[in-house]
Write a structure and sequence with these properties.
Layout: H1 4-23, E1 28-30, E2 32-37, E3 40-46, E4 78-80, H2 85-93, E5 100-105, E6 110-115, E7 120-125, E8 139-145, E9 160-165, E10 175-177, E11 181-182, E12 204-214, E13 217-226, E14 232-241, E15 247-254, E16 259-261, E17 268-270, E18 279-281, E19 284-286, E20 292-295, E21 303-306
Parallel strand pairs: 1-21
Antiparallel strand pairs: 1-9, 2-3, 3-8, 4-7, 5-6, 5-9, 7-8, 10-17, 11-12, 12-13, 13-14, 14-15, 16-19, 17-18, 18-20, 20-21
């Protein structure tokens, strides 16, 4: 049997991890792959979304390039940021060299942990970079990951998230792809419209319905057509408790100039984060802005994925 001292130590350790997660903002980032040239690519996590920039000469995030000739442009398309720029970055983002970068490949259930002090802080010219000389706003600033340390598989990094802080926020082995089954008819499995959907009920015509079950829940995805031209105008997601038939979560997805519908093979669900409700995500592509992770909860707001989208 464990001694009271050991049990107390374990309790303190567990509570410390919980408190650490509570104190650490849940900020999730895209893991991005960029081709530097025909023979080299990099894995990169941009933290520019959380890096407030200042135009004061003593606070610039990148060196002033106005004194360099145009011929130097190539060497400044991707370069390391050492002192004092690294120190400025850590101070402005409230990070420290002792913090860690966690990368979770949820498709293959692989977790990678890197100490920030072991990673190079880099400035990467964004795809919409401005004219020479480049300014700090033209760069994505973040950490380059050692590709040799990551077991990359085909497109696996398209199914990975990153987080930075002291405590790993990811729950391993609890996320799975949603495999939709088309319902035999368009009859809604749960007949009464929920309160939040009621104002939209007369706006759309119900078309195909798809279902999926996991974790004691039924997921219902409805294609909704516009009354005007019968085109696909929205998708309605319902997550229902199988035992009580209670609606746990509802979301209406619409297409717009900035968002389009993802294919039915792109959705994932499960417990992605420690001490958080299950999630569901992958319903929309974002051409402007960034996509969101949806918590299956009536109280937890959607979580934005920091993707540093400059479009």
């Amino acid at each position: 049997m464990r001694s009271a001292k050991t049990v107390t130590w374990l309790l303190v350790l567990v509570l410390g991890q919980i408190w650490g997660l509570a104190a650490q903002d849940l900020r999730i980032f895209d893991l991005q792959q960029y081709e530097i040239d025909s023979a080299q690519y990099i894995l990169f996590v941009s933290l520019s979304d959380i890096y407030p920039l200042s135009e004061h000469p003593d606070s610039l995030a990148t060196p002033y390039l106005g004194n360099y000739p145009f011929e130097a442009a190539d060497q400044f398309s991707y370069f390391a940021l050492d002192s004092p720029f690294r120190s400025r970055f850590l101070r402005a983002t409230a990070l420290s060299e002792n913090d860690k970068l966690f990368v979770y490949d949820y498709q293959n259930d692989l977790l990678y942990t890197f100490s920030l002090k072991s990673l190079k802080l880099k400035a990467l010219l964004n795809p919409y970079g401005d004219d020479w000389p480049y300014a700090q706003f033209d760069y994505m600033i973040g950490f380059e990951l050692p590709a040799a340390s990551i077991q990359t598989k085909s497109n696996s990094m398209l199914h990975a998230f990153a987080s930075v802080g002291k405590v790993n926020p990811f729950e391993r082995g609890q996320v799975k792809p949603v495999v939709w089954q088309k319902a035999a008819s368009t009859t809604q499995p749960i007949s009464p419209a929920t309160t939040s959907f009621a104002p939209h009920a007369k706006t759309y015509t119900l078309a195909e319905t798809y279902t999926f079950e996991a974790g004691g829940m039924q997921y219902v995805l409805q294609n909704l057509l516009s009354h005007a031209d019968q085109s696909l105008a929205a998708k309605r997601l319902l997550v229902i408790a199988l035992d009580t038939k209670t609606v746990l979560y509802e979301k209406l997805y619409r297409e717009s100039e900035s968002e389009s519908f993802a294919s039915l093979e792109e959705q994932w669900t499960g417990k992605l984060f420690k001490n958080k409700p299950p999630v569901v995500f992958g319903f929309q592509y974002a051409s402007f802005g960034c996509p969101y992770i949806n918590f299956i909860s009536s109280t937890d707001p959607d979580l934005r994925i920091h993707c540093d989208n400059r479009h």
